[in-house]
Amino acid sequence: MATDKLAPQKDDHFTFGLWTVGNRGRDPFGDAVRDTLAPTTIVRELSKLGAYGITLHDNDLIPMEATSAERDRIVNEFRKALDEFGMVVPMVTVNLFYDPIFKDGAFTSSAPAVRRFAIDKAKRAIDLGQELGAHIFVVWGGREGAEVDGAKDPRDALAWYREGINTLTEHIRSRRYDMRIALEPKPNEPRGDIYLPTVGSMLSFIGTLDDAELVGVNPEIAHAKMAGLNPVHEIAQAIDQNKLFHIDLNDQRIARFDQDLRFGSDDIKGAFYIVKLLEDSGYDGPLHFDAHPYRTEDAEGVWEFARGSMRSYLGYREKVRQFHTDAEISGVLARIRELNETGPAVVDSSSLAYWRERGYAYEKLDQLVTELLLGLR
């Protein structure tokens, strides 16, 4: 029997968040359409589908006001499920955006008491991650922003943000945890304006930290596309600086609200080049699907969503392999290199006509890639 190339394996490192498959379909205009899924149920079902691991916000697993005894019971039950179904937790994050206490931000709140509360909450989430075996701690500053710039000096806000991250890296070092922090940028939503909205701004900010070595980024495809940016270029910048610690895979239509569409379901060519970049660069971290099933779906549709996310990535990966072995594509790439390398060595008055008139064969290359993705090659 032929092997299904699109059947996920554990070494593909596919992961989902409790909040992704567990999303109940609630949106700003409508209530939930699906029942709550227990974390242990999510672990079991994703394992059956071939996923490698599960990720979580602290409060996806443990209610914010749980007692110590309740917390320990929940964690023990979750760890038993992970062991039973052969799943791991590569990443945890912290919810610093949902509770009304964070209405003016967490690390960048104007209130010192709220900032201290946020830092302590993040420390506890790091401790939870250590307990579950996670090596990555993602920080998404969903409420780190402003609607009224007169209310706080953005320079102060960045200083408070820096103090928060510095405190977390010191916590990791002092506890000797094998963990790194990945900062997740987003250009807008839910605040009017978000501080550090792009990968580039996050990378610049990381350079100002006390322990920059311990901090990288977690780019999300949808977040880049919300601002009309090219996620391939955002991811490449992180790779170039050895700061791609984690990645969120999904899809998005440009300039829309945060849609969190199934990976590869909308921008087929864009998804192909994302997978090509990750595979060609040798990225070996978690491939994390941060998306939601459509609100139209019932419970079975949730698992179709998860299955489709992994199959799509594997399908694009197969197309990347075909790209590298396609004789005509290889020939066009060789021709492009030849044109670049055999032309005049300098641009001067005698070679201006050559450089002005020569073509680059990009139309041919782009059409061949399009045919590849359409299954015509």
Give the gist of this structure:
This protein is 47% helix and 9% strand. The protein is built from 14 helices and ten strands.
Number of domains: 2
Oligomer: single chain
Please compute the radius of gyration using only Cα atoms: 23 Å
End-to-end C-alpha gap: 25 Å
The CATH homologous superfamily of the largest domain is called Divalent-metal-dependent TIM barrel enzymes
Order of helices and strands: EHHEHHEHEEHEEHEHHEHEHHHH
Largest sheet: 8 strands, parallel
Strand order of the largest sheet: 8-6-4-3-2-1-10-9
Mean pLDDT: 97
User: Count of helices?
Assistant: 14
- CATH architecture level-2 label of the largest domain: Alpha-Beta Barrel
CATH structural fold name of the largest domain:
TIM Barrel
Low-confidence stretches: none
What proportion of the residues is helical, as a percent range?
40-55%
Task: Give the DSSP E fraction (strand runs of 2 or more residues).
Answer: 5-15%
Q: What structural category characterises the helix and strand content?
A: alpha/beta
Shape: globular
Quickly name the level 1 CATH class of the largest domain: Alpha Beta
Question: Would you write up a description of this structure?
Answer:
By secondary structure, the chain is an alpha/beta fold. Helix content is 47%, strand content 9%. It has 14 helices and 10 strands. The strands form 2 sheets. Strands 8-6-4-3-2-1-10-9 form an 8-stranded parallel sheet. Helix 2 runs parallel beside helix 4 and helix 5 runs parallel beside helix 6. The mean pLDDT is 97.
